[in-house]
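Subgroup meeting minutes
Present: P.N., E.W., G.H.
Scribe: E.W.

1. P.N. recapped why we're keeping a running log of single-chain structure predictions: easier to compare across weeks, and new members can see raw inputs and outputs side by side.
2. G.H. added today's entry (400 aa).
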Amino acid sequence: MSLRQLDLSRQGERFDVYLDFLTQAAGHADRVIPIENYTKGLLLPIERKSVEPMAAHLAPGRVRQMHQSLHHIVADAAWSDAAVLRQVRNQVLPVMTRKHGLAAWIVDDTGFPKKGTHSVGVARQYCGQLGKQENCRVAVSVSLATEEASIPAAYQLYLPEAWASDKKRCKQAGVPKEISFQTKPDIALAQIRSLVNEDVPRGVVLADAAYGDDSGFREGLISLELCYAVGIKSATTLWPPGIGPLPPRPKGKTGRPPRLLQRDKTHQPLSAKELALCLSAIDLRIVSWREGTRGVMRSRFAALRVRPAHRDYWRKEPHPEHWLLIEWPKRKRNQPNTGFRIYPHRSHCPSASPPPNYAGASSATTKNSSRNLAWDISRAGTGADFTIMQRCRLQPTASW
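Output recorded in log:
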């Protein structure tokens, strides 16, 4: 037997072990073979991975029976997709982290262009694949990533409010009765909470402004004691370094003493964009972070110690301090465009380099891409980029 034949034989054995492990989540013995066939079909070198062409390649002599079997396991069988993802994670993650430890939990959503109106969740909404508003379905995911690989750990279809409120439409499409409307940040936070409860190894939570600008999402991460680096929008209000909300009013002669924080006409927070515009050239540091296709990637950054100001007039204590990391490329000399991130509280600036951002990692996982993960900061706009950091583990440097 040649070395090539031996290698192929070992690959076949490994794949059989993988399928045996995967089908443990089937829930019923009758689902084992259909799940194995469907998994093999997904790996076939064919353009369309729908049930019909897969059935024709898997069983040319009995296409009809194979088609029925595959369609049943995909459309009707009551197996748990979360259980399958858990089985895959339990088998793959130990191998994936042998050389490089787990670095990040990537929160993202992926849009799938779709024509028509009958598929569950289809609506006119932003589609990342197309970069514009289009008819599509969207799935929210959390992926686990190292420097070299990523794996989906949670995956859920987003059901728009127009769908969730239309009970007749949901019933026709087979949406379970217990499914109700959730925002994308709510879905992501529930997924993260489930991973924490399962004691999945922790990493820095990374997310764009669609999630990071949601104060409930950020506060949920803090309550779970997770490190995070997330985007915020330019209009997000922040208290500048060394400034915070006013203390409660003095107690009057009667009644309970006031406990809520205050603002007045002259004491107001600034938007993230206004904070960026207050910077001068000496506040910005040139940082290089990796080799790109056109040479070393570098940009200008500033790090500020700030407090989120979202509705703190209903709070008794100020929000905890965060690091606001601002990127402002030198070529952009006018007003900065929007794009921010957020990192947890610590008394020192995280480091003189930008945080690792695994741009496109979850999308690469979804598309079965073989690209390596990027360490550069993904830009939400063409001007300034900002990040707020909470509970950063990186060490400070003298330059900050």
